[in-house]
Amino acid sequence: MNRRLIINIAKALMFARWKQTLVAAIGVVFSITMFVTLLSFMNGLNDLLDSLILNRTPHIRLYNEIKPTKNQPINKDIAFKKGHNFIQSVKPNGGRLEIYNNASILKTLQNDSRVLGVAPKIAAQVFYNVGAIDLTGVINGIDVNAENKLFNFSEYVVTGNYIDIKNIPNSIILGKAAAEKMLAEIGDVIQVTTAKGDRMQLKVVGYFQSGLQDIDKVQSYCSISTTQKLLGKTNNYITDLNIKLYHIENAPEIAKEYSKIFNVDAVDIQTANSQFETGNHIRGLISYAVGITLLIVAGFGIYNILNMMIFEKMDSIAILKATGFSGKEVKYVFIVIALSIGIFGGLFGIIFGFSLSYLIDNLPFNTAAIPTITTFPINYDPKFYLIGTSFSIITTYFAGYFPAKKASKVDPVIIIRGK
Amino acid sequence: MNKIVLESRSICKSFHDPITIQVLNEINFSINRGEFVSVIGKSGCGKSTLLYILSTMDTDYEGDLLIDGESMVRKKEIALAKVRNEKIGFVFQFHYLLNEFSVLKNVMLPGLKLGKYSAKEVEYRAMEKLKLLGIEKEALKLPNQLSGGQKQRVAIARALINDPLIIMGDEPTGNLDKKNSQIVFDVFKELAIECNQTLLIVTHDGEFAQKSDRIIEMEDGRIIRQ
Fold this sequence. Notes:
The structure holds two protein chains of two kinds. By secondary structure, chain A is of the alpha+beta class. Chain A has two domains: about 200 residues, no CATH class; about 190 residues, no CATH class. Chain A is about 55% helix and about 15% strand. A six-stranded mixed barrel of chain A has the order 2-3-8-5-7-6, surrounded by four helices. The relative contact order of chain A is 0.18. By secondary structure, chain B is α/β, with parallel strands linked by helices. Helices cover about 35% and strands about 25% of the residues of chain B. Chain B has a single domain, classed as Rossmann fold (3-Layer(aba) Sandwich), CATH 3.40.50. In chain B, helix 3 packs across helix 4, helix 3 runs parallel beside helix 5 and helix 5 packs parallel to helix 6. The interface between A and B is medium-sized, with 27 and 30 residues.
C-alpha cells in the first residue's frame, strides 16, 4: 500500500473542491466549538452550584441525635430476657446533645492522616426578639479560624470582619435576610432568647450571606465561648464536630468507623446531599446529548459533501481503478479526505471552543444570591477537549466510510463505456 | 520471440437483463509478443465487451483468460488490479486524465502506484515517455490546457509508464480528427516496431485497422476472421 500516493491523491481531490471541503470543515469546527463550550459552561455551573452547598457542608458530621435508647432497661433484666418484651410509648430521656469527651475525640481526629481538619460547632435554637415579635433562628457557635480554613467562612461574610466575633465578646454575625427583618445595623445590639428562656444581648458585627435565602433568614454565627455562655454551659460543651477529609469519596466508610469508635451519630456528605449528585449527573447527560447531536449533524454534512464529490469524480475513480488502483485504495482516498476534515475541523474546533469559553469566563455575572461570583463560571477540564476531538474523528470516519465504500465499488467498465 | 502474451480460451458472455442475450460466443485467439492487432466489427458486435474482459475489468464471463501464461479466472479484485497496473496499459476513446494533477503527475500515477521505482526515477521515466511522444514541453501544464490530440498522447504516455506487456485501446482515435488520428496511429506503429510493444486496439476505423499487422474481425459475438 502506497500511503503517500493515496494521501497525495486525497489532497488533490480536496483542494480541487476546496470550497466544499471548507464548508464541511466549518460544520465540524462549529459543532466541536459548541460541544466544548457547552460542556465547559455546563460543568462550570455544576461546580458553582456544588460549591454553594458542598463547600459549606462537612464531609462527615459527628453529633448526638435525640432518640430513645435501643437497649431499654427491661431487656437487661435476667427475668425477662427470654421473652419478647413489648414496650409502648417509649420516649427519649432528657438526652444531652453534647458530644462526650469531645476534647480527646478532637485530638484523635486531628491526628488521623485521612482528615484535613475538624471544626467544632455548637448549634443553639434561639428566638431573635424584635420588639414584641420573636423570630426563630439558629445560632452556630463556631471556632472562627477552623471554620474559615475548612469552609471559607470569610467569603460569606459580606459586611464587617469575620474575625470580630472572636475578638469582640458577646458579638454576632447575623444572616443577611434575618438582619433585614430585624432592621439591625452593624454596631446595633440585639436580644436573643434561648429555648430554655435565658436572654442575652449581642452586638452585631457583620452580615452573613450564603446565597440560600432560607438559611440566611435563620442562621447567625457567634464564637464558641459566646454560645456556651448564651446556653449557660461549661466550656467543654460542643454539639457537633464537622470533619473535612482529604478524599471526599471515603466519607461514608470513615463515618461508619467514627460512629462506632466514638459512639456518636455520624452522617456523611453523600448521604446528606444525594440529590446534588443526581442533579449534576442529569445536567451532564443533557449537555453530552446536545453536543453529540451537533456532531452527528456535522457528520451528515460531511457525508453529503463526500457523496457529491464521488459523484463528480466518477471518471477519476474509474481511471484510477483501470490503471491498477484497487477498490480498497480508492476507499482509503476518500476516508483520508473525511478524516482530514475531521482532524483539522476538530483542531480548530477546540481552539475556538477554548476561546469562546474564555470569553464567557470573562463576562461579568453579578447575582445578589452568590456574592463570591463576578463572572460566568467555566470548567476547563481537558476531558471535554479530548472527547470533542476523538468524537469528531469518529464521526467523520463514519461519515466518510459509507461514501468511500460506494466509491470502491464503482465499476470502471460502466463509466468508461458510458462516454 | 513468439511468446504468447494473451490468450483467450472459449470466452463466452451473456447479459441477463432484461432477457438473456449471448454477446460473446466461444472466443478463441492468442496474441504474440510484439504483434499490433486491431479488432474490428460493427457497433454492437461485442468487441468492446471482449476488450473489457481481456483487460480484467469485467470478471463476469465463462471460459479462461491467460495473461503472460497466468489464468485470470478466480483471481481476487486486488490481484487483478495489480495485473492491470503492472502488465496492461490502457488508452480509451476519451482521455480520462485527472484534471487535479499536472500532465507529468498524470503519467506518473500508475508508476507511483506500482512502487517499483523511487518517485524521482518514476518522474524521469515519465519525462522519457513524454519525450517519446513529443509532448515533453507540456509536462507541467494541467490536462485541460491541452488540445485533444495532445491529451490522447498523454494518455498513451500514461499507458506506457510501467512498460506494460500489452497496450489495449478502445477506439483511441474515435474522438480525434484525421490529422491527430494519424499522429496517434504513427505513435502506435512506432511503439510496435521500435519498442516491440504488443498492441491490441479495438476500432471501427477500417483505414486504421488496415495499417496494423493483424486484424480480428467480429460479428454477432463471434470471430469471423483472424
